[in-house]
Amino acid sequence: MDEAKFIGRGKAKDIYQRPNGDIVFVFTDRVTAFDGIKKAEYNDKGAICCKLSCFWFEKLQAEGIKTHFKEYVPPNMLVAEDVSILPVEVIARNFLYGSLWKRYKKGEVEINTEFIPEDEKSEGMPLEKSYVEFTTKFERVDRPITEEELIESEWMTKSEIEHLKMETIKVGEIMSPYLSQKGIILADFKLEFGRSKMSGDILLADEVGTPDGCRFWDKEAYERRGEILSLDKDVFRQEKGDLSEVYREVYKRIVD
Ligand code: ADP
Ligand code: MG
Q: Is 151 near ligand 1, meaning CB less than 6 Å away?
């Protein structure tokens, strides 16, 4: 780390750059929610999210997903290729929950029969297939943005959008069955992508498969009792327990 230079601090990670250009992410124990308004620190959170990201990046790369990942440096550092981050976060949802449910109730978004055939819709019900949407990344507060607006504002081309959606669905198709075997439902997840400054390729960037960026639900509780037992950052958002303990449990289920 001595040669790496500090270049910035995100909400959860500190960012350094090596003389060769590689980015070193230091995963801290910081946790934030509600656009950074609610803040805290939880022991081991950084190391757990770092190790989980590295675990998934390796698995995804082995399945042919192009990523920025280069190396895990224990206990809480991830080395990656420097990319130009695309101006959106991509969200894939397998359940009607969180902000999608809130927007649906307010009439701000339609869920057509492709996703839920029944008229009767309820919070936490499963979707027939993954619902992929975008939020802005470089505005003060993240907001949902339509594909039309992305194209009109020339933030992204139609083919870039299609590529991100396809890659995101592939990532979900790799993570979901694996997690299911470990007793975890992948309810939704967020991804970031960037363009390689070397090859121009679009690479999966930031972090992946962590309880910060995914909604993980205990499978047994949902399937047996219809209960949503969160194993993710919702525990912090909704004050449902000790985040360190929940994150340790998630790590144990996924990796050990
Ligand atoms: P944030 O507050 O934006 O969530 P984080 O604490 O997650 O920030 O720190 C990571 C930051 O680094 C994010 O802004 C993310 O977009 C950016 N980033 C992720 N991967 C790369 C990469 N390979 N190259 C450059 N920047 C990246
Ligand atoms: Mg982040």
A: no
